[in-house]
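To the wet lab folks,

You asked to see what we're planning to order before we commit. Fair enough. Below is the target structure as tokens, and below that is the sequence we designed to fit it. If anything looks off to you, flag it before the synthesis order goes out.
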């Protein structure tokens, strides 16, 4: 029995040693495969934090070659018409937008009261005419009697005075009658020039006083484009003569214009100075109220360094930009002297030829390496074409590592 247990125990030791040997062999093979893979693969390189950015090269650019202001088409003359007499409106003959001709009736008042006044004036004129004729006849009779010395000279003088008074009264009544005729004609409001109705401020049934504006008529013979000029451009505008206008509805056509009027007083609402540009009379498809832009061409456009707003970096109330030098960025403070459209004008801090970051400025730090977008793709494609041998060696190393792994997995356990 003792011998049997010893034999069994010895057999168990032998199996245990065999298993340990197999395990050690497997571990040795795995370590060898790992060493082979490490030997075939490239060493891991430390990657630096390289930020991609967009840049621009600084150059002097014209600040602006022209001054452009928006405005609208307006008539040179726009009259607010009203009746010259009091009365009640009984007819309105036009609507807003109606083209009218000179002398065309626009509105009418009730003529009844004025017609009665005209009859009264005519009656007064007739009475004065009769008194004048009577005084004239008496004067003639007394002149004949005076020639025969039948009447005294004082009596003849009184008759002459009576005749002169009757004549003056007649002339006064004639003037009153003519004035009343004019008053009667004023019951019809007519256009004093060719144009278009732009506003109607009274309706039928309304009683209006003399001179109250009831209709607004814009003359279409002379057209202006009205724009607002900022106060810092008024002196410049006065010296410019090359002016053109473009309509929003037809931007491809430039219409020559002339500065007709520049207000000496700023508008109280917009705080701009109103400028009126006269347009040629023969213009097709030109309607009042259309949107237009006026362009004032500058004679000598100044130049300056212009940067987009995305290039600016603000830190502690200091405006700076990132300059790229040999693939590394550094922060440079600048002085902004003004603006031009969507760009800023740099007064100091930069010089022509320097490279400025225009996108990605908030992801940078001093001394950081950067890659310029647009050049990175080109460099990558060229390096891939220039190093085909390295790609081949890398592929062979990967195949060898795969073969070693397969042989290790197939070894007996």
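Sequence we intend to order:
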């Amino acid at each position: 029995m003792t011998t049997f247990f010893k034999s069994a125990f010895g057999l168990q030791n032998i199996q245990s040693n065999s298993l340990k040997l197999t395990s050690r062999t497997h571990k040795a093979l795995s370590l060898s495969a790992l060493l082979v893979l490490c030997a075939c693969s490239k060493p891991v390189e430390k990657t630096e934090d390289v930020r991609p950015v967009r840049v621009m090269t600084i150059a002097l650019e014209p600040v602006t070659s022209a001054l452009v202001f928006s405005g609208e088409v307006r008539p040179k003359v726009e009259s607010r018409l009203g009746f010259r007499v009091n009365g009640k409106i009984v007819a309105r003959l036009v609507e807003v937008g109606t083209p009218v001709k000179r002398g065309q009736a626009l509105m009418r008042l009730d003529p009844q009261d004025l017609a009665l006044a005209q009859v009264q004036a005519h009656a007064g004129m007739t009475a004065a005419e009769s008194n004048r004729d009577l005084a004239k006849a008496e004067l003639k009779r007394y002149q004949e009697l005076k020639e025969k010395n039948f009447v005294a000279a004082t009596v003849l003088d009184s008759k002459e005075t009576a005749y002169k008074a009757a004549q003056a009264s007649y002339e006064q009544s004639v003037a009153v009658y003519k004035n009343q005729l004019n008053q009667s004609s004023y019951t019809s409001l007519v256009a004093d020039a060719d144009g278009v109705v732009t506003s109607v401020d009274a309706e039928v049934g309304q009683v209006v006083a003399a001179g109250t504006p009831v209709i607004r008529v814009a003359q279409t013979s002379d057209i202006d484009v009205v724009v607002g000029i900022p106060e810092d451009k008024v002196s410049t505008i006065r010296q410019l003569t090359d002016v053109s206008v473009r309509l929003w509805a037809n931007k491809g056509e430039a219409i020559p214009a002339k500065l007709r009027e520049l207000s000496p007083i700023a508008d109280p609402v917009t705080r701009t100075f109103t400028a009126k540009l006269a347009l040629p009379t023969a213009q097709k498809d030109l309607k009042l109220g259309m949107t237009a832009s006026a362009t004032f061409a500058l004679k000598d456009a100044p130049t300056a360094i212009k940067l987009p707003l995305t290039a600016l970096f603000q830190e502690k109330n200091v405006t700076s930009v990132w300059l790229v030098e040999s693939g590394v960025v550094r922060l440079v403070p600048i002085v902004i002297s003004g603006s031009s459209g969507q760009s800023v004008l740099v007064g100091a801090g930069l010089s022509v030829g320097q490279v400025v970051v225009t996108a990605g400025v908030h992801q940078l730090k001093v001394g950081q390496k950067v890659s310029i977008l647009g050049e990175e793709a080109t460099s990558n494609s060229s390096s891939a074409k220039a190093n085909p041998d390295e790609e081949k060696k890398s592929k062979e190393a990967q195949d060898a590592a795969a073969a070693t792994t397969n042989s290790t997995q197939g070894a007996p356990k």
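Structural context that might help your review: The first strand starts at residue 51 and ends at 57. Residues 2-40 form the longest helix (39 residues).

Thanks,
Computational group
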